[in-house]
Every structure is written in structure tokens, then in C-alpha cells.
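Re: that backbone. C-alpha cells:
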């Protein structure tokens, strides 16, 4: 009788797992369906990773864990290959997970996606400190920014094509001969495919990045060593275009002072219906300072100017049809 009871219990548990999986595949979201599928097959994540490697796809156990928790979504081409392989490994209908993933990436709200979460900011902040450590560069690079003008380009497919930055800085210690720039791509970007360009009064140095968060840091080397009080002007660019639909551009400031100007220019084939500026005291605080920005018909651009920045976040957001 004991064996019969154990078999009955196991069958009941299997039926519940199957029912949960069927429900999740119908209604989603993606991470719930993935978690239910893995549970229904009784596979530990290490075994799932092993099966993926046999399909020629490399995905870490940590990434798989994040995917089934909903902490991150697979968006890069290699990750999407992994999702299609998971459908076969977990004995799921073709396109079942891919369809749920596409549904989860639809804009939330009238015509736009959600902004970056506090969690994503904190993950990026931790990664940034690690990457700066690899370059041997402190957070304070020895200069104060007097002026910073950014020009951002959004492409015909609504993607972040890239940006150019012009900096005017003043050294506050002797011996400064470089600047470390940070680029944080949109979710699903591929930093290894971005192009970093030195445009004026600098040369490109070392570049490193983190695939999971999309954070890229790049050195720009000066042809002179600044003394304390010296000013310097230089310009550089980052060509991106590796992620999906972009709905905002955000710039964080660790310290105040200096003028900041941000201009976003759109391709004539993809124009937003509304644009606005916003600010935050910190990534954890609610957004405020919302103000509508008119889109220039001739130049297809919007801009903001902050005469003297404060610690926190500034950005421009827009709504697509």
C-alpha cells in the first residue's frame, strides 16, 4: 500500500506540474513558463546548461537562474538561440517560449516601454566599479566637467544608433592624461559589436565591457599631461545600434557642477509622437521635473540644457505610436 500511495502522490505532483506548465504556456509571462517547464521535466539548471552545450549554445547557470526568476530576459542573438534550444530540450511546442518572450517585450503603457529599473542601475553601478578597477581608473579621474554636450541618434528601427560627446574639463590635480567614458546600452545590446571612436584631441585607449548589463567603458588618451587648473576640450563617439526599441536616454551624475546639454535626433522614418525631459534625485527616487519638449520638424530633434547639473539623473524620454 505504501508503494501505491507513493506512486499516486508522484502522479498527482506530476499532474499539477503539467497543469501549471500548460497554464503558463498559454498566459505567460516568459519566466513563469520557463520555470514551470524546467520543474515539469525535473531538470536541475546544471543539466539544462549541459543540454544546451550539446546544442552548441553556451549559457551560464546564473543566466538561466535569472531568466526563470524574471530578473533578466534573453534578448541577444545567442540568448535567443538558447531559448529555441530550450523548447526542444524541455519538449515544448515550437515557438512557445519565443512567443511569450516577444509578448513580454511589447511596450508597457501607451506607446513606450518602462524606464530603467533601480535594480538595473545598481547592477550597472557594481559592474562599472569592477570595470574601472580593471583599467586601474578611480571614479574621480582627476577632472571636473565644465561643459558636456551629448548628441544622441535614434535610427529608423527606433534603436539607439549611437552618441557623440564633447567635454570641456578642468584638472584638479597634476598629471591627468586621460578620461574614461561610460556607455550603458539598452537591454539586449551587444557591447562587443559597438564601435568606440576618438574624434578630437584624444586617442582611443583600452576598452572593456560587461555583456549582461551592457556597460562599456573606454579610455581616451590626451597628448599632454594636465596640471592642476588646466582646461582641456575633447570629443569622442560610441556607435551602438545593437539593441531593440529605445524609449529614453538617461545620464547619471555622481557630482554636481558644469553645464550639460543633451540633444536627441530621430530618423525621419521613425518619429515619436511625444517627447519629454525628466529628472531624479537618485535612481531609487521617483521621477520628477517632467516637461514636454517640442520636436523640431526640420531637424527632427529635441534637447535639454541644464546650466549647472546636480547629483542625480537627467534624461529625455519619448513615446512611439
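Recovered sequence:
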Amino acid at each position: 500500500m505504501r508503494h501505491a500511495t507513493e506512486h499516486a502522490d508522484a502522479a498527482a505532483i506530476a499532474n499539477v506540474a503539467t497543469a501549471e506548465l500548460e497554464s503558463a504556456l498559454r498566459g505567460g509571462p516568459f519566466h513563469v513558463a520557463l520555470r514551470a517547464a524546467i520543474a515539469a521535466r525535473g531538470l536541475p539548471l546544471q543539466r539544462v546548461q549541459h543540454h544546451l552545450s550539446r546544442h552548441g549554445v553556451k549559457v551560464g547557470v546564473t543566466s538561466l537562474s535569472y531568466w526563470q526568476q524574471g530578473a533578466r530576459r534573453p534578448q541577444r542573438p545567442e540568448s535567443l538561440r538558447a531559448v529555441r534550444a530550450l523548447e526542444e530540450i524541455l519538449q515544448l511546442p515550437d515557438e512557445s517560449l519565443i512567443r511569450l518572450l516577444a509578448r513580454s517585450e511589447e511596450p508597457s503603457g501607451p506607446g513606450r516601454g518602462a524606464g530603467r529599473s533601480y535594480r538595473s542601475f545598481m547592477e550597472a553601478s557594481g559592474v562599472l566599479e569592477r570595470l574601472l578597477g580593471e583599467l586601474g581608473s578611480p571614479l574621480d579621474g582627476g577632472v571636473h566637467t565644465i561643459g558636456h554636450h551629448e548628441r544622441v541618434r535614434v535610427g529608423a528601427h527606433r534603436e539607439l544608433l549611437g552618441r557623440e560627446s564633447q567635454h570641456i574639463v578642468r584638472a584638479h590635480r597634476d598629471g591627468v592624461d586621460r578620461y574614461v567614458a561610460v556607455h550603458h546600452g539598452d537591454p539586449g545590446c551587444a557591447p562587443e559589436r559597438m564601435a568606440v571612436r576618438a574624434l578630437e584631441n584624444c586617442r582611443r585607449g583600452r576598452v572593456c565591457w560587461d555583456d549582461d548589463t551592457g556597460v562599456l567603458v573606454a579610455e581616451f588618451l590626451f597628448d599632454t599631461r594636465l596640471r592642476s587648473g588646466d582646461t582641456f576640450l575633447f570629443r569622442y563617439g560610441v556607435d551602438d545600434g545593437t539593441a531593440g526599441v529605445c524609449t529614453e536616454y538617461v545620464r547619471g551624475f555622481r557630482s554636481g557642477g558644469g553645464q550639460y546639454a543633451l540633444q536627441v535626433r530621430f530618423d525621419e522614418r521613425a518619429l515619436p509622437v511625444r517627447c519629454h525631459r525628466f529628472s531624479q534625485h537618485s535612481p531609487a527616487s521617483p521621477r520628477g521635473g517632467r516637461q514636454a519638449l517640442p520636436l523640431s520638424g526640420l531637424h527632427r530633434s529635441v534637447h535639454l540644457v541644464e546650466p549647472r547639473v546636480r547629483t542625480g539623473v537627467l534624461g529625455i524620454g519619448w513615446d512611439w505610436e
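The first helix runs from residue 2 to 27. The radius of gyration is 24 Å.
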